[in-house]
Amino acid sequence: MKKNLSACTTVLVGKEATIDGSTMAARNDDTFGPLTPQRFVTYPAYHNHPNQVKAYLNKCVVDRPADGYRYQGTPNVNYKTEGVFDESGFNEKNVGMSATESVYANERVLACDPLNTETGINEDLIVAATLPFINSAKDGVKYLGQLIAKYGSAEGNGVIFSDKNDVWYMEIVTGHHWVAERIPDDAYAVTGNRVAIQQVDFNDPNNFMWSEGIQEFVEKNHLNPDKYGWDFRHIFGTADVFDQHYNTPRQWYGHKVLNPSVEQDPLDFDLPFIMRTNHRITLADVQKILSSHYQGTPYDPLGHGTEEQKHLFRPISLNRTQNSHVLQVRNDLPEAASTIMWMSFGIPTFTPYIPFFGNADDIDVSYRETPKKLNMDLKSAYWMYRALSMIVESHHAEFAQDDLNYLKDSREYLYRWVNEVAPKVKGMSDKDACAYLSDETHKMVAEMAKRTKGLMSSLIMHGLELSKLTFIMDKNL
User: Which residues are identified as catalytic?
Assistant: First the structure.
């Protein structure tokens, strides 16, 4: 199995670091090509039905338990050729999972424990093999760790698990070895495609988990380059010119957004994974990072730097971003409405994050059914938001302000919608809460489609006036 180069960006925030006491686990799902149509679905719970899940990109077959929870996913439409890649969602126990952040180990460690490319766990099926069977974020790490021990790993993957209390980040780097770290409640973390976890404390099982025998593996094979400490990134990760232009700048910019007073170098191999701020982090802050392209720096491809500067670093948001999501668990809302996946199906620079409750299982048809190709009726949410992205970028100087106004108005409407809808499920049965949240979500999706198509119509009209095929006659002729 050869995995196409992918490049996701991850932002994680503990509950005491956020403005509302929520946990947030966020990631951009970036694919190899600019168009990899996706859809948003809910897989039903099942009981007394042992089965298997099979990968499309290698020969991996995972045995699944007889009972599984309902869970969400955002699979590829062309799954038979591109793999399923469910990517992100919540299960009915209010546990979130986002998978994966591709990570790459160095040749020293891979020589000692090669990836199991033929039959190992890969991103294609990792969500389906894990999310229906876990009851907490930490449980997710443990469960996936057991699968890796049994089947091996086909590739390097960073996997996120979250619940109302915890956010865990798990990095699987070789065929059988991994480390996971709990993000401190008062901190946040940012990474982009490099091994992120740094010093590991093997005396602290409440905040670190690891594969069996990993310390002995490192010692036996003489893999630790440091005289002191046990730095997972130094032992297993890479540090080359590619990292400095493709990966480290994204981590640098995430810290720049949340810690603007801290001076860092975008080429630094030792940028911190976890940091703290002197302010509380908002949902908009996290979305700002994931939708960014180095605004306010010379490296912005849409900015005013030199041509060399504008193309020096790979931006965070780009045309290969198929969906951008924030898995938020709000402890100030009723349990049935506490899990929200904020998702953008377009390029997040230009399109809004739409909230979907984890317990609203009737997904709107515009998200549930995505054609393989663009239909001009724009009934599909994926294609509607991709089209909006293209329109805005095509005349960015002229359309940017209208798009910014639309995004600002959308955030105001969607924040209000969540705050009005969620409290009303208090006291409802699970069935009634699920039905209510589903009905209200249908209305919200329709409203956003109306607003989006209205903006697109306005921008197309303006664009027609910007054509270079024009000529002004002298009024005196």
Answer: 8
